[in-house]
Amino acid sequence: MITFHGLTKRYGDRIAVDGLTCEIASGRVTGVLGPNGAGKSTTMRMLLGLDAPSAGRALIDGRPYAALRHPLREVGALLDARAVHPGLTARAHLLALARGNGIAARRVEEVLETVGLARVARRRVGTFSLGMSQRLGIAGALLGDPRVLVLDEPVNGLDPDGVRWIRRLMRSLAGEGRAVLVSSHLMSEMQETADHLIVLGRGRLIADAPLGEIIARSTGNSVRVRTPRAAELVTALTGAGMQVRWTAPEELRVTGAPIERIGLLAHEAGVPLHELSPRTASLEHAYLELTASSVAYAAPTPDTVPAAEAWGRS
Ligand SMILES: Nc1ncnc2c1ncn2[C@@H]1O[C@H](COP(=O)(O)OP(=O)(O)OP(=O)(O)O)[C@@H](O)[C@H]1O
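Above: inputs. Below: predicted complex with adenosine-5'-triphosphate.
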């Protein structure tokens, strides 16, 4: 398990991580999300002893990274896949890591198989594609068979096959009871992979909840209703305080009420229904709502630029 207690990092007068307190449980994949500059990488770096906190603590199974005797056996990390000496072969790189952490050499062959690099184990890392480097980084993270895994943007550079592979790998690592902490800007990928999410904005914790709960809280959830007597139903639904939008002549999108209530009101109004179906919000929708006020580097969009400026008049 990973624990953050009031974790804080200041760079001069800028606060990169601001009093972060939360737990990353074993046995599940926890996604860490947040806009650029939210503090995700800084949090991971402090957890891995690469940066010292200004205040607070980041603990792996109750101990700071610096107190771990054989760190690779306790926590495996993928931060920067390209941070490997380009002149080394994949096998030599992993063997050096294994030796430094008291790990048997045969484990190197196992992880090379696991990540699909066994056939290129003798090639120099400098000739690897980004996707191959990511796989090598994951091999290094798995080397010590650790209980905790920290993966920063692991799907970066992977082709669709590789993305599916890493998704399955993370799910199976969590299934074995390990804590898997993963960051990604790909919302669709997170929606497929994560059980739980922590969302950061300007260094602060905005949300810490199961994926399903974060999506359920979104205003993007709605109910699609098809009926030949839509106008009558609109009157009944808006009269009950629901928000209703026409999406086609005989089709409505209703928000602000559970599906059962909509069905009941239609029944009471004597309106026949041809369809009544829930439409679940995407994680992207829920995420954009959560972080709307925390985006540090937003480009102006036509909605945020005053109309006169957008057309070059002042
Ligand atoms: N070494 C550093 N010196 C000064 N400021 C830093 C340093 N490292 C990070 N920061 C600042 O801390 C803040 C958080 O950065 P961090 O890289 O942790 O964000 P992030 O959530 O990982 O962003 P991204 O999604 O862009 O990777 C940013 O404002 C960044 O500019």
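Residues 222-279 form a domain with the Alpha-Beta Plaits fold (CATH 3.30.70.100).
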